[in-house]
Design a protein that fits this description.
2 domains; globular; 14% strand; 9 helices; Nucleotidyltransferase, domain 5; 41% helix
């Protein structure tokens, strides 16, 4: 078992080279490292997703494996799809957690993100020696806090978190395309629930559907305007 080291500390380490953080964890004794990241935090509609990608030393010590992986927001949809397949093949295990819009409204987005991350970790077939998350503090009683390192912009510094970022993004986008057929008119197939101008216009015209997060300000304003008519 790896030495837990600094617990749940959020920091901004210098740009010390790709895989340097994970290489250090391997030297400390970790055999498996899970990267965790979320997607959909700022959406007006749809669930918030988190992915946990478990990578072993055979991947983390090979700089040629998944070398194109980085923050999902920095690459194209086609690149994400290609890397999704590479990640699926290279990872020891992958798990996804999601909380629907109604639960985002009930718990708040910050808590919903934490719960989605814990669901993703709980879905892995083995408990990782170390966990790296992007700028989120996991609760002390979740079962992972003593082995978790939380880093600002971890998806650009850690291969495992970059892989999680891509996997979560592709999985969520595909699900939102599917839900677009159930809720036509909002453009979920292209905006994926984000508050684009066209999405906001459709929201004003159609009102919210069951996928919308009614606790978010644009939804509250839309509902208040409808009630005042």
């Amino acid at each position: 078992m790896a030495n837990p080291g600094a617990r749940n500390r959020i920091a901004s380490p210098p740009a010390i080279g790709r895989l340097a953080i994970e290489a250090r964890l391997l030297r400390e004794g970790a055999l498996t490292i899970a990267g965790v990241d979320e997607v959909g935090r700022g959406c007006l509609a749809g669930p918030v997703y988190a992915a946990a990608v478990l990578l072993g030393p055979e991947v983390l010590r090979n700089r040629r494996r998944l070398r194109r992986a980085t923050d999902s927001k920095l690459i194209s949809a086609r690149q994400r799809d290609d890397l999704f397949n590479e990640i699926t093949y290279a990872a020891r295990a992958i798990s996804v957690g999601a909380l629907e819009a109604s639960l985002v409204d009930r718990h708040g987005i910050a808590e919903a993100v934490r719960r989605a991350m814990i669901h993703a970790l709980d879905g892995l077939p083995e408990k990782p020696d170390r966990v790296i998350v992007d700028s989120v503090r996991l609760p002390e009683d979740c079962g992972y806090a003593d082995r978790t390192l939380s880093l600002d912009r971890a998806e650009t510094q850690c291969l495992s978190v970059a892989a999680a970022s891509i996997y979560a993004k592709v999985t969520r986008d595909r699900e939102m395309r599917r839900r677009a057929g159930q809720h036509p008119g909002y453009g979920f197939e292209t905006n994926f629930g984000y508050g684009t101008r066209a999405h906001r216009r459709a929201l004003a015209e159609l009102g919210p559907c069951s996928e919308h997060r009614r606790s978010f300000a644009p939804l509250r304003l839309t509902l208040e305007a409808a009630e005042s008519r």
